[in-house]
Write a structure and sequence with these properties.
Number of helices: 1
Number of strands: 13
Helix content: under 10%
Shape: globular
Oligomer: single chain
Strand content: 35-45%
Length: 185
């Protein structure tokens, strides 16, 4: 099969975006034993899920300037393969027993994670293969002003970069079969 590349070009965009992530939204990868089935990716976006069971995502807030979302292109010319490693690094301040218990539960299986950046773009990590917790630390700090809390990394590997989730309301994502439920402050 012959492959052809199409270059469409890209103009220099306006200087109106910021770095960093605001929060992540997490749901189990499978609902009642059925994996989440995201709609087809069109022009780099996913509009909704096609699973017949409603999916509820819960948010995990972070302080500003503490979390990041990185996608790495992994290509092998020799093997003719390419895939994307998607990693979200999260920092949650203040160790509390409920958080430790919750994150222990999250390590037990695959997850569905949407990453919301500070520009209110929402990226769907691991949309075909799921996301797993791959590392982290629980830190008490040493000095009075040191960090006290949890640091976790979630990783996905996909055939394409994480698509954007099409949203009608920028603050809280919505969809027909997916609900994003903010945690009460």
């Amino acid at each position: 099969m012959a492959c052809s590349a199409v270059a469409v070009g890209r103009a220099l965009p306006c200087k109106d975006s910021l770095g960093g992530i605001k929060q992540i939204w997490i749901s189990p990868w499978a609902i009642s034993g059925v994996p989440i089935d995201w709609a087809a990716v069109t022009a780099g976006e996913i509009a909704n899920i096609t699973t017949s069971t409603a999916v509820v995502f819960k948010n995990y807030d972070m302080h500003k300037n503490t979390g990041s979302f990185t996608q790495t292109v992994n290509a092998s010319v020799e093997n003719g393969t390419i895939f994307y490693t998607q990693v979200v690094s999260c920092v949650f301040s203040n160790e509390v027993a409920a958080d430790i218990s919750n994150f222990q539960d999250l390590t037990k299986g695959r997850l569905a994670i949407c990453v919301q950046d500070v520009n209110d773009n929402v990226f769907v990590m691991g949309h075909t293969r799921g996301v797993e917790l791959t590392g982290g630390t629980l830190e008490s700090g040493v000095a009075m002003g040191d960090f006290n809390g949890l640091k976790y990394e979630f990783t996905a590997e996909e055939f394409i970069a994480a698509p954007f989730l099409t949203m009608t309301t920028p603050a809280v994502p919505t969809g027909d079969m997916v609900t994003f439920t903010p945690t009460a402050s």
